[in-house]
Amino acid sequence: MEEMSFEQCMARLEEITRMLEKGDVPLEKSLEYFEEGTALARKCRALLDSAEQKVKLLVRNPDGTLGVTDFDGHDGD
After folding, report:
1. What is the pLDDT of residue 30?
2. What angle do CA 8, 40, 32 make, to 5 degrees?
């Protein structure tokens, strides 16, 4: 799971969710899927947090404050 990308984690999490929602998985297997799903959710959260920190660094102004930039590249003033 360590080498999985965010997209791969989300796809696997969606797959697990579908299997569990069907309701025909034995209890023991359901617990295994649940455990895997919670680990995947934690990994997705960590990857999102990391991406958010990178974005904040990229939009930081020279004075250390966070800048807001429009999609056209101009300041949001």
Report:
1. 96
2. 115
Tokens found for residue 18: 């579908």
What average pLDDT does the structure give for the chain? 86
- What Cα–Cα distance (Å) separates residue 69 from each residue in 53, 60, 63, 77? 16, 10, 16, 9
- The pLDDT tens digits of the residues spanning 4-36 come to 999 999 999 999 999 999 999 999 999 999 999
7 by DSSP, 3-state: which?
helix
Check if the beta carbon of residue 69 is closer than 8 Å to that of residue 76.
yes
Q: How many residues does the chain have?
A: 77
Structure tokens at 75: 């300041």
- Which domains does the chain possess? 1-77 (1.10.287.1040)
